[in-house]
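Tokens as discussed.
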């Protein structure tokens, strides 16, 4: 089997390097995507807690208003 011409070796190496770069870029993209999803989950949890607190405050306010109204009727 004759030795590979230098140009073909260089081309094969360039293709392999290009494939490696593509794989690294894809891994980096997937990692960033996971980070963004985790960040979105954390924001959703924080917003959920804020909504829960607001709901509790509104409920307490409504109960206080109802109590005041009933008290004024008596």
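Sequence:
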């Amino acid at each position: 089997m004759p030795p590979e011409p230098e140009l073909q070796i260089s081309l094969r190496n360039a293709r392999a390097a290009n494939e490696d770069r593509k794989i690294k870029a894809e891994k980096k993209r997937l990692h960033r995507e996971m980070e963004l999803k985790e960040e979105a989950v954390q924001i959703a949890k924080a917003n959920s807690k804020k909504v829960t607190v607001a709901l509790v405050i509104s409920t307490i306010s409504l109960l206080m208003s109802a109590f005041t109204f009933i008290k004024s009727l008596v």
